[in-house]
Amino acid sequence: MDDVVGRQPVLEALRSGQEINKILVAKGPRQGSIREILALAKEQGTVVQEVERSVLDKLSESANHQGVLAQMAGVSYLELEELLAKPRDPNWAPFLILLDGVQDPHNLGSIIRSGEAMGADGVIIPKRRAAPVTQTVMKSSAGAANYVPVCRVGNLATTIDTLKKAGYWIVGADMEGDTCFTQDLTGPVALVIGGEGPGLSRLVKERCDFLSSVPMRGQINSLNASVAAGLLMFEVLRQRSLLP
Fold first, then answer.
1. What's the CA gap between 1 and 151, in Å, rounded?
2. Where are the domains of the chain?
3. Are strands 48-51 and 4-5 parallel, antiparallel or unpaired?
4. Mean pLDDT, residues 66-93 taken together
5. pLDDT one-digit tens code per residue, 6-33
6. pTM of the shown model
7. Cα(83)–Cα(234) distance, rounded to whole angstroms?
8. Measuring CA to CA, which residue among 226, 232, 213 is closest to residue 103?
9. What is the CATH number of domain 80-241?
10. Could you say which DSSP state residue 79 is in?
11. Which residues does residue 110 pair with via DSSP β-bridges, in sequence order?
């Protein structure tokens, strides 16, 4: 896995018990969350090295590292069988997010972040033609990727078949679908989000039990993948929490 950059993502990596090889901190005053990072690192026995800010500039994909970078031991993707076997809250129906060709790492990070907030049990991504978990994803997720299991699969269509056998309803996000407000999302649900341009692939779309859309009033008839995912995930939470 790539390095994790930024104060909040590094802090969440420490809090969640992720394996960290070393934390690099820019020389200078240590204030605010940097002090919390250092305290947690000391408590957990994680090596901390002080470096020039230019070193962090070079190591990070952008200069917005906020003076801290964690060199991770490696990402731990779950196998599908492991994800399905994980213990679950008996009062919360299984809820998974499947991404069909989402290639923008910022969208992936945002979807993981929303998924963590809305109670998703995991995110499933294909191994090909899709963004993997990188430092950009970690930063975009604000550390949520440390808490939401991510599974990589070779074939999304056959994965959907497996989920159906496990009792999941497959819900595809698509403009042609009925409004999400009229659909029952309280049972075991696997929500499928298509790529930024083409949307759901044909094979995946054909395997969906039904399609779901977000009602819109404006002139633009489409939403960013992560925005659409967030709205549909909130509807799942709203229905299950019996919010008005």
1. 14
2. 4-72, 80-241
3. unpaired
4. 88
5. 899 899 989 988 878 889 999 988 888 9
6. 0.76
7. 22
8. 226
9. 3.40.1280.10
10. P
11. none
Longest distance between any two alpha carbons in the chain, whole Å: 57
Q: Structure tokens of 213?
A: 């859309």
Q: Which residues contact 110 (CB under 8 A, 6 or more apart)?
A: 140, 141, 226, 229, 230
Token digits of residue 92: 């919360």
- The whole-angstrom separation of Cα 198 and Cα 124 is 19
Q: Which residues pair with 150 in a beta bridge?
A: 123
Chain segment 177-211, per-residue pLDDT in tens: 899 999 999 999 999 999 887 889 999 999 999 99
Strands (E), the chain: 4-5, 20-26, 48-51, 68-72, 95-100, 122-126, 150-153, 169-179, 189-194, 210-213
| Encoded tokens for 22 | 């070393």
Instruction: Quote the CATH superfamily of domain 4-72.
Output: Ribosomal protein L30/S12 (3.30.1330.30)
Q: Mean pLDDT of all residues in the chain? A: 90
Q: How far apart are CA 42 and CA 53, in angstroms?
A: 21
